[in-house]
Amino acid sequence: MEWLNSELINFAAICKHLSLTEAAKELGKSKAQVSRQLAMLETALGVTLVHRTTRKLVLTDHGKSISPLALETLSKLQELNYRARSLSDCISGKFKITMPNSIASSIFGSILRKLQERYPAVIFEISSSNKVENLLESNVDIAIRLNDVVDDNLIAHKVGNYNDVLISNNSNEKSSTLLIYKNHSNKEEIRKSYCDVIEVDNTSILLNFVEQGVGLGVIPNYLLKGSSHQELLKVTHTYSTEKSMYVAYPYQNPLPRKLAEISSFIRLELTAILGEK
């Protein structure tokens, strides 16, 4: 029965993604292991659960019949795992924080250093991604998010506001070339004023390009706070629209001490940084 539980969890991940590669990523296994466990489950049950084509996986009728229960079981196990990791009242053990690349590469370094000094028994793991992760599925304790948090399963605390700014290096203020983050929410409106627009998928690279005189750049103003870039770059315009930053984590009652203390510390630090002039 124990091995069967493992195969069913494996099958649930396959149902969720319809991809051996993505299922393997979620389960922390190799693609070959996932495929092998699926074959073992099909052999044990005596039915085919998944058709394998060259392009994708397709559930058979047998697979579809148990898919909802398998997915529900996977979700419950992920929630159980998250809550079990939060039971300890001691400020120690692993603690995973996810945030956008722009925050990880700019203002969070100083906060992480203080966290290490304050909580030496905690092993911090930092996930830098612009993808909005499911915190329970990814075993994430805290997420730093930009703009509104719409997930009802999360508790979100606003830590402050920021603005986008237009920057140049000290000798290139009149450039007609604009560098802008490729997923910027107001990209189409801003680009109308420029002859040449270069889209960049990483704000750190965008900053380096501006420093090297490639063109002007649009960035969130927190990227300049407390960094060496301030000496090399000049803010030529501040956009009026304010955007918000949040610290979020899955709802729990009561809130574990480790999560409560670390989240409170991060919120205070971010609020102080965003409030700096």
From TrEMBL:
Position of the signal peptide: none
Protein's UniProt name: Transcriptional regulator
Xref: InterPro entries: LysR-type_TF_proteobact-type, LysR_HTH_N, LysR_subst-bd, WH-like_DNA-bd_sf, WH_DNA-bd_sf
Recorded superkingdom: Bacteria
GO molecular function: DNA-binding transcription factor activity; sequence-specific DNA binding
Annotated ranges, domain HTH lysR-type: 1-60
Keywords for the protein's UniProt record, in alphabetical order: DNA-binding, Transcription, Transcription regulation
Organism: Vibrio parahaemolyticus
Lineage summary: Bacteria, Pseudomonadati, Pseudomonadota, Gammaproteobacteria, Vibrionales
GO terms, biological process: DNA-templated transcription
The keyword DNA-binding belongs to this UniProt entry's keyword annotation: yes
PANTHER family referenced in this protein's UniProt entry, alphabetically: HTH-TYPE TRANSCRIPTIONAL REGULATOR, TRANSCRIPTIONAL REGULATORY PROTEIN
Family as reported in the entry's similarity comment: Belongs to the LysR transcriptional regulatory family.
